[in-house]
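Memo to structure team: turn this sequence into structure tokens by end of day. - J.P.
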Amino acid sequence: MKLPRAKSLILDLLGTVPPGSAMPIAMLVEVADLFGTGSNALRVAVARLVAAGRIVSDERGLYQLGESAMPVGRRVRSWRDLSRRTRAWRGGWLGVVPVAADRRGSRRRAKALRLLGFARLEPSVWLRPDNLAERVAEVRTELAALGLPPADLVAGLHHLDPATDRRARGLWDAAALRRSYRCSLADLETGAKRLAGLPAEKAMVESFLLGGRVIRELVLDPLLPDEICPGDERRALVERLRDYDRQGRLVWAASMERWGLPSHRAPVDARADDAPSRVATG
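Reply from structure team:
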């Protein structure tokens, strides 16, 4: 499995810190060494993240996520509650029409839309089924928090013509999604058996990488309605990941507690910022 970059490692580690707590730089350096990241590279990445406002520190050299990193962090942590993020689909759609044309705005838009499962129908129209628990106004607010340019239009679309509706339903590769669920489920089952026999440090790295890869898959999942992609395999994957996550927390507990941090969350390599979308065919 691919090792995380220093920036991703820092963000994922700090994502485990609950409100009111922070992580010392010495722990960041120690953990980075497990993943082959030297202290110099780690400190450079920390400085850049602080300059970008994505992490903040106090006078004691303790670090936590900054305000700009919070929306993605909340999205990453939401994998445990996927069943509560959707509702029955009545055939409608959510649409986004881009207005901002600058390159930076385009990058922010692509990231935000990827995280909420939108796919491109036309060069100027992105769609997803209107089956999210949030209504249009709430989706608009979340997209804005994730980086959608404020001028972009977000609206409900309820009466697509039959040909366009068929084309919209085909924007996602449902067969590939289901294969990915099954493969990840098998990987977790194999990984759970391996984890118990590994030395502590190797178990920390493996749980971080495997658990994080599957979490990344779920964070980027478009949460399609069963009418487009049956969700039983995704739901089974979430349940299996819950078990693996508990194993991971136990593996990381000693290290977290040694630095005075609660161990109710295990660090994961989610890297939702960097992961490409592999579910839309359009």
